[in-house]
Amino acid sequence: MAEQHEEEVQISCSFVTKLPAELRVPSAPIAVPANLTRYGLSQIINHLLALDPARPFDFLIDGELLRLSLAKHLLDRHISTEAVLEIEYVPAVLPPTPKEEHPHEDWVSAIAGLASSSGSKSSGEEGPLLASGSYDGVVRLWRDGECSCSFTAHKGPIQAAVAVPSRGGEGPLLLTAGNDGAVRLWRGVAAAAAGGAAPEAAVLLKGHTDTVQGAAVAPDGNLCATGGWDSRLLLWRCGDAALAAAEAAVDEEEVEAAAAGKKKRKVANGLAVAQHVEAPRSELAGHSQCVSGAAWPTAGTLVSASWDHSVRLWDVEAATATDTFNHNKAVHCVGAAPGGAGLVAFGGAERALRVWDPRMRSGEGLAVKACSSHAGWISAVAWHPSSAHHVATASHDGTAKLWDLRTSIPLHTLEGHTDKVLSAAWVAPDQLATGGADCKLRVAEVSIGGQ
């Protein structure tokens, strides 16, 4: 009887969208059955727009994605069915399509997408360049399904790999960190992928006394942060600023050598073979256990995660924590919404992805919500580079999941790994790469659509 009653109820709806004019329906309210789900609503939009072929849409009510029938959604949220209901429609995210799978010699523990500064494809319409780091200490460069170059970056497992933007003509730099306590800045990565000489370790960031677990780079590339098992969160000069310092050091050494009548040191690509050593610029003190992850959403804001159960927001300029969320589990990874949207997503020694809105104060609502679906610990969080809503997670349950944070239910689950998934990264706006303890790098095509 309840279902029959729900079918009989009509709800007056006004459909709105931010999509282009050709995808906008008339805003005049229309009556729809209360038992419709997002699939039925999508059929209505397709009919009104006379789309052929049909396109799938998702629907937002008060900023939340519809995942129940209209009637159940409104009832659960105490929204009146008497007034006109405004519903926003957006393109639905289709299931990811597996694209590539590449075996490695050891666990794939770090991935970075090395997009050009413009974000567009290079000449010849080549695919995105990505770097994978593994427990054998080797970085491998991949493009269009082929490994174009591999080189030993660390003595032991690599735990972090991050692309570093550069204004130079040679393309992005690569920052790597590992169990050997070293952090290295590599140049010549794009040239190496094109068949040139192997990348050069231009700068060594020296200061950690144990495994370096996480790293993040400022939006302009000239600063980076690293965290490790020594419980330290360190800030460093990075990118073009670090390269300029390295080149200046080489020039100074050559002048001193010439004045002393000594033979010049051999150089490669304008830098001395012996890499320039950088000391930390500063330390952000506060964590009491391993600093396991970091994210740098805006120039002045850094986010860090730690096994001490906390996630912290930092004012980089003042070198002080501006906010802290104290959890009850070790936190293994963290991501932050791009462009200063404010949201922070983190995961760790539990099955739920947590989403924290630091802008929400006590008494104003739930500042942290749980998105539960994984069956194991969460090992990586990768925020989409241009969406404030879409996040990918990797888990010890052998899967990766794609989320729209406007609902607590995952959009899709990516399967294919046969062991723990250890790393995840967007290597292009439409490509998600994952790596795991099954010694495989997998790449899937994911279309977020104009969201």
UniProtKB/TrEMBL annotation:
Q: Would you tell me the Gene Ontology cellular component terms?
A: nucleolus; nucleoplasm; preribosome, large subunit precursor
What SUPFAM superfamilies does the annotation carry?
Answer: WD40 repeat-like
A Gene Ontology molecular function term of the record: ribonucleoprotein complex binding
UniProt KW keywords = Nucleus, Repeat, Ribosome biogenesis, rRNA processing, WD repeat
The cross-references to InterPro entries, in alphabetical order and at most eight, read: NLE, WD40/YVTN_repeat-like_dom_sf, WD40_PAC1, WD40_repeat_CS, WD40_repeat_dom_sf, WD40_rpt, WDR12/Ytm1
Q: Which residues form a coiled coil?
A: none
Q: What does this protein do?
A: Required for maturation of ribosomal RNAs and formation of the large ribosomal subunit.
Q: What is this protein called?
A: Ribosome biogenesis protein WDR12 homolog
Q: Give the organism the record lists.
A: Chlorella sorokiniana
